[in-house]
Amino acid sequence: MNQPFKTRYVTYLTALLLLIPLSAAAQDEAGFYASAYGGVPAAPSTSFSEFRPTGPGVGGTTKFGGGLGFGAAVGRRFGNGWAVELALDERGNYLRRVGGVEVDGNIFSELVLLNVYYRFPARGALRPFIGAGLGYVIALDIDVDRNGSEQEYSREGGVGVQAIVGVEYSLAPRWRLTGDARWTSVESGTFKASNAGNMLIGKPKYRPASLNFGVTYLF
Predict the structure, then answer these.
(1) Which of 48, 50, 51, 20 is nearest to 34 (CA)?
(2) Inter-residue contact 211 to 184 (CB < 8 Å)
């Protein structure tokens, strides 16, 4: 990974805070919007084996630790509960163990998604919603750091899907706060090593579940 994923999210959070002072003039919910969210993903275990020209290999069940996630989208609400958006989604989790061997590293995904939402009738200032998305995998990277040496494995292309359930809060005529849970699945694929001679065998999957908080601005 060219940049630690934590640094990416600090940058995005700063940009989000700069958006908040925008004017909140009255407007009906139907129309275009922009949104951003941040959250904490948890990833279930997967499996792979890693081999290098020097030293023993590792392989087996892979355990992930905590992580961070961010998403940003532009879309349109149709005034009847339905909405569609194009979103950029980035998530990452720390890599803790491979086959019982402690390692350092992380897994990072970047997807572009077409999401469809349905928002149920509001209950006061609250409005529950559900959604689903289909996307393209821009990048899926796995960094493995062991014995003081880091190796990056990456792949691109393929399909990602997600399911969403959450609730939004009407803060002002143009502003909405959101809280949601997202389940994402990135299909398995073949990874390439950044250094010749190193190999990652297997097709590990990345299927994080995340809790997120965000903000939406209606145009």
Answers:
(1) 20
(2) no
Mean confidence (pLDDT) of the chain: 88
Instruction: Output the CA torsion sign for 71, 141, 59, 205.
Output: positive
* Residues 47-61, mean pLDDT to the nearest whole number: 89
pLDDT over threshold 60, residue 1: no
Report whether pLDDT(21) > 50: no
Q: What is the pLDDT of residues 80-119, one digit of tens each?
A: 999 999 999 999 999 999 998 999 999 999 999 999 999 9
Counting Cβ atoms within 10 Å, is residue 58 exposed (0-12), middle (13-18) or buried (19+)?
buried
Residue/partner pairs of 7-10 with CB below 8 Å, 24 or more apart: 8/70, 8/90, 9/38, 9/68, 9/69, 9/70, 9/90
Could you tell me the CA-to-CA distances from 114 to 14, 49, 85, 87, 213 in Å, in that order?
A: 25, 33, 6, 6, 19
